[in-house]
Amino acid sequence: MKELKFIVQESNNTPHHTVTIRKEKNNLSARCTCESGGHDSLCQHRLSILAGKAKWVISDNGADVKRVINWLAWTDVGLAINEVTQAQKQLKAAGKELEAATERLKEAEKAAAEARTKLIEVMND
Ligand SMILES: [Zn+2]
User: Fold this and answer.
1) Residue 39 or 48, more confident
2) In angstroms, what is the span from residue 114 Cα to ligand 1's centroid?
3) 58 Cα: distance to centroid of ligand 1 (angstroms)
4) Are both 47 and 84 inside the same structural domain?
5) Global pTM?
């Protein structure tokens, strides 16, 4: 089993936390001691380190974050991160489609209202 621990802190005014990354064959685990680092939610500390970013690492092993990236390939966590990335791309694309469709809906509503007004006018002529 391989293990790396990073002490992270977002700013001088926030408490520091420990992120522990463990790898055993294709199983990777990433745990954090912060309130959001439990089993039910994702904290930015873990996501940041799993993304290869050492920006919040205050322990002197910040360079080891790059090793985590190499560990990720073909692990359960690496594959799940790829799925999240794909899903987020689809969500973004769907959001753009929705925006465009909402714009077309507004134009169609305006055109329908104008057509009804015109119908009333010609009926009353
Ligand atoms: Zn955390």
Assistant:
1) 48
2) 55
3) 14
4) no
5) 0.75
